[in-house]
What we know:
This protein is of the alpha/beta class. The protein has one domain: 3-Layer(aba) Sandwich (Rossmann fold). The protein has eight helices and ten strands. It has an eight-stranded mixed β-sheet, with helices on both faces. Mean pLDDT is 90; it is low at 29-38.
Amino acid sequence: xxxxxxxxxxxxxxxxxxxxxxxxxxxxxxxxxxxxxxxxxxxxxxxxxxxxxxxxxxxxxxxxxxxxxxxxxxxxxxxxxxxxxxxxxxxxxxxxxxxxxxxxxxxxxxxxxxxxxxxxxxxxxxxxxxxxxxxxxxxxxxxxxxxxxxxxxxxxxxxxxxxxxxxxxxxxxxxxxxxxxxxxxxxxxxxxxxxxxxxxxxxxxxxxxxxxxxxxxxxxxxxxxxxxxxxxxxxxxxxxxxxxxxxxxxxxxxxxxxxxxxxxxxxxxxxxxxxxxxxxxxxxxxxx
Length: 288
């Protein structure tokens, strides 16, 4: 769920200004050309991924050290691919993964799709993002997920003998469920962070109905205000995982929707770090 209550206040990041983004792009290009310039022993590249609907702009990260690593697809939240998610992609790659962070709205606009002072409570700004999200059909998402995993598997740094992971934030939680179902032979672990109430709906395309089609372990980290709106959802998720025989942790964190992503008004460092530690444990145990 993504509305003015769930995403209060401004999302700020000076790197999203035209000048800041231009500098960041130049820096990323330099790292791509010369791995020796990579920060945190990670190579960062701006890439294009061919999908059934066109070309998706995305960011690819992998360790500079020689070797092969498990792949991870990271779905951003409703505000899309931006510096905060590049930071997370870089951090995860430094832990020993090949990470792809796509622009989920590539059908509508190039990333980043927000500026340095985005106000989700502004109806006009919010409607713009919702329009981008509306252009993503279930079939389109499924085709995108397959294309993203194929792209990751085509990288020489990817260990194709190891399971891949997928993680998503806000709307990305539901997209991660879909990914695990459409590429069930590859995905071994799913992380959902403040995925909102859209993980369980009364519609036939509800993400929780896909669990039985997957072969993954799950980490579901819900926000306290999402849980307050729908306290039954966590129990429905637990029941669905149990019925499908899947290993899953479903927990409500003491933070509000969006707490994992820096720059937002509700960012909560302590709970974000707890979620990251649990994700690290999930991947260590299952991406083998």
